[in-house]
Amino acid sequence: MVDIRDLHVSYEGEEVLHGIDAHFPKGKISVVIGPNGSGKSTTIKAMMRLIESDSGSVEIGGEPVSGLSQTELARRMAYIPQGRNIPDITVNRMVMHGRFPYLSYPRRYRPEDREMVGKALEWVGLIELSHKKMSQLSGGQRQKVYLAMALAQDTEVILMDEPTTYLDIKNQFELLDRARLLAEEGKTIIMILHDLESVLRYADHVVLMDAGKLTASGPAREVLGSEALKKAFGIELSFIETEDGVHCFVKR
């Protein structure tokens, strides 16, 4: 579904991505992992054209995103960044932002836009909070609002940059469970995660980055058990199978 080919990106004249090649399959959860500063967020932002690449390409369904207008791109890929300001607006208005790519200016919301927003809020379980201000919500609730906004955007691909940051355990699992449901519905989910146990539990496909390069990709257990992971993080994982699945822990 999404392919990155020989992607190079520089900041202030210094190259930070060194020829990334990656494939993210349709209807799967793909997780990008790597140490801090390895280029994970830069890769995600380059996919959305939020930063300019030096060379290489990003394709969605075989079509280069460089040939898409910003509106066309926003109809194909939704992006949930790691952190954002909390606007002084209601939940409903925030989720309605997901419909902007389908509206001309001045924006006049259509019945189908309101219906899509309602369905998105219902899907994440926040329909009863639709008239609350964003500032009145907990961190977990706000993250659900951003997910609802991405759902209202109605894209094939959803990119999430560390979506479980600042969430408690319950909300982490709930968000990841919802990501699994989206993948089962055919959405292509690409996210950055740090918790390797969650990666093992939820990822269909893992991309490992280290120092601006892609060093391994494939099924979660294969990548997490690789020498590339040991080199990137300076740790080695062991795996144990239980009744509820495979778990990992750091060898001592």
- Radius of gyration, taken over Cα atoms and rounded to an integer in Å: 19 Å
- The percentage of residues in β strands lies in 25-35%
Note poorly predicted spans.
none
- Nearest-integer average pLDDT: 93
End-to-end distance: 39 Å
- Helical segment count: 9
Number of domains: 2
Query: Quick one: biggest sheet?
Result: 6 strands, mixed
CATH topology of the largest domain: Rossmann fold
Regarding CATH, which class of the largest domain?
Alpha Beta
Helicity range of the residues?
A: 25-40%
- Sheet with most strands: strand arrangement: 6-7-8-3-9-10
Find the count of extended strands (DSSP E, 2+ residues).
12
* Structural class by secondary-structure content: alpha/beta
CATH superfamily of the largest domain, by name, is P-loop containing nucleotide triphosphate hydrolases
Second-tier CATH architecture of the largest domain: 3-Layer(aba) Sandwich
What would the principal axes of the Cα set say about the shape?
globular
Descriptive labels:
alpha/beta; 2 domains; 9 helices; 12 strands; 33% helix
Can I get a quick summary?
The chain is of the alpha/beta class and 252 residues long. It contains nine helices and twelve strands. A six-stranded mixed β-sheet has the order 6-7-8-3-9-10, sandwiched between helices. It has a four-stranded antiparallel β-sheet with strand order 2-1-4-5, with helices on one face.
